[in-house]
Amino acid sequence: MESGANNSSRHAVLKDSSWFSQFRNGCNPWMARYAYGLMFLASYMIAWAVRDYGRGASKQIEKLKGCASGDCWGADGTLRVSMGCFAFYIVMFLSTIGTKKLNKCQDSWHSGWWSVKIALFIVLMIITFLVPSAFVKIYGEVAHFGAGEPGGQSCNKKAEASSKTDWLTIISFVVAVLAMVIATFSTGIDSQCFQFRKENTQAEDDIPYGYGFFHFVFATGAMYFSMLLIGWNTHHTIKRWTIDVGWTSVWVRIVNEWLAVCVYNGSNVRLRRHRKIHKTGEEIDDF
């Protein structure tokens, strides 16, 4: 009984403490989410650097991955970084899914063991640059769910219209990156956002957010940022400091918006039916 009280008080102190205090005590789920967010941001920036500056890579690296052209290095390298990030978060998803309580093995793995996980993250990033290009192409097709584009140069007129980069383009790129990371982070910690029935009470030893759902969101986010960086087109790279340009991106956004509207309307209809049934049940009980 005393151990349970001590654990609950310990987690309450960690949750209410400052960001620096949580960073100093590395084994807690509240600090872990920021660490995973930083790792996701690092992957995003590495993928961007590979896309924009990968053409200047050494010929040895070019031979290592079997890429015959500079364009292939830009898009192919971006997908490889994304694949490494995706693999890491899928491993974390499979190893933490189903976690319910604090102070368990899965909770310790999610919230601690940072040296092991950082090493795993680096190893997976390196391995993705050793796999054949055929696997990378398959991953690219899976990442955009078939949203392809013909190989003609006319598809990327906006990206090829100018070779200059102004400050507005750079600022827009930075804002888009931050928005992407923040949206992924906020969605990952809200594991009950798709549930209509919320739990009324939460036990003191329950995990603060769904670990498996958290990592799954970041895994899908890894696929999404790769598509943004290559403009949903695995055949050509786009202009430096740009993100999500081209006609493929336009049609993907249109389809996504319509899907979002359909899901939102369907959720509202289902929620209204649930409330109506619940209200009818209460009236019958009162009668």
From TrEMBL:
The keyword Secreted does not apply. Keywords: Membrane, Transmembrane, Transmembrane helix. The keyword Transmembrane applies. The lineage of its organism: Eukaryota, Viridiplantae, Streptophyta, Embryophyta, Tracheophyta. The chain crosses the membrane at residues 31-50, 79-98, 118-136, 167-189, 209-230. GO terms for cellular component: membrane. It is a multi-pass membrane protein. Its main location: membrane. This is Serine incorporator. It is found in: Membrane. InterPro entries: TDE1/TMS. Belongs to the TDE1 family.
